[in-house]
Design goal:
The chain is an alpha/beta fold. The chain has one domain: Aldolase class I (TIM Barrel), CATH 3.20.20.70. It is 46% helix and 15% strand. An eight-stranded parallel beta barrel has the order 1-2-3-4-5-6-7-8, surrounded by six helices. Helix 1 packs parallel to helix 3 and helix 6 packs across helix 8. The longest helix has 21 residues. Bound molecules: 2-phosphoglycolic acid (PGA). The site of 2-phosphoglycolic acid has 13 residues, from strand 8. 2-phosphoglycolic acid (PGA) binds next to strand 8.
Length: 269
């Protein structure tokens, strides 16, 4: 199975000059990695998610490479155009060269009050414009401490369940266009991580829940995210329930991002 390694650049880098410098490093390191390990692209799918403003640059520079480009969010209001100041639609994202979008990241849930209904609209808009969806879920520290992880996850996954109930026609596109990213909020950017056994058990639960929504989703890809780095990537990669990583901080350096990808590539041999 191919591992997915996704770089979530968040609100970085600061300038287009820095974006191009990071891409220079990434493309050079990717080339070297692919030459040294000819099976790399078969084992690892890379994806980069820059800010809206950098999407066109990044997607243009990734053209002809094996890496994909994603947005970090899309408008909930319309899949196409409309009077929604500050928003960017799924159609605009696709036109800028992205083929995927992250949705429901905990920073969006926290700072933009992204509700179940808003996310349901966003996932629908993404799929109708043929954008794949990396759907993020995960519990807060308080919920983890109260052992509510699975309950929280089930409630967040109800967006997918409800989408299928409302639009059963989307089942086919969902089976190839949906990835779940499990990111405990307390592990994001903190250097704290759950044990591999904990992540593995949670992923198993996610896979079972999603397969329960539709049989065709039984091979769903589930990524782990939250303080993944070059040092801990091997341990996550070694677990068969962990299909890749959603990487924040460590995706801003070519070396650490490709080191994480290499760990998953090695584990997939
Ligand atoms: P982190 O972020 O790798 O910096 O913890 C992960 C994420 O927020 O997707």
């Amino acid at each position: 199975m191919q591992a997915w390694i996704i770089g979530n650049w968040k609100q970085n880098p600061a300038t287009i000059h820095d974006v191009n410098a990071l891409l220079d490093d990434l493309l050079t390191t990717m080339n070297a990695t692919e030459q040294a390990n000819t099976a790399f692209t078969a084992r690892c799918q890379l994806m980069l998610a820059p800010s809206f403003i950098h999407l066109t640059t990044v997607s243009a520079r990734l053209k002809g490479t094996s890496a994909l480009c994603a947005a970090q969010d899309i408008s909930a209001h319309s899949a196409t155009v409309g009077a929604y100041t500050g928003d960017c639609s799924a159609q605009q994202i696709a036109d800028a060269g992205a083929t995927w979008t992250i949705l429901g990241h905990s920073e969006r849930r926290q700072y933009h009050q992204e509700s179940h209904d808003k996310l349901l609209q966003k996932v629908t808009h993404a799929l109708t414009q043929d954008l794949g969806v990396v759907f993020c879920i995960g519990e807060t520290q308080a919920q983890y401490d109260a052992q509510q992880t699975l309950e929280v996850i089930d409630s967040q996954l109800s967006v997918i369940r409800d989408l299928l109930a409302q639009q059963p026609k989307l089942i086919d596109s969902l089976s190839t266009r949906l990835i779940i990213a499990y990111e405990p909020v307390w592990a994001i950017g903190t250097g704290k991580v759950p044990t591999v056994a904990e992540v593995s058990a949670t992923h198993q639960h996610i896979k079972q829940s999603v397969a329960g929504f539709a049989k065709s989703l039984s091979a769903i890809t589930v990524l782990y995210g939250g303080s993944v780095n070059a040092d801990n990537a091997d341990s996550f990669a070694a677990d068969s329930m962990i299909d890749g990583a959603l990487v924040g901080g460590a995706s801003l350096k070519a070396e650490s991002f490709l080191a994480i990808a290499n760990a998953f590539s090695r584990a997939n041999t």
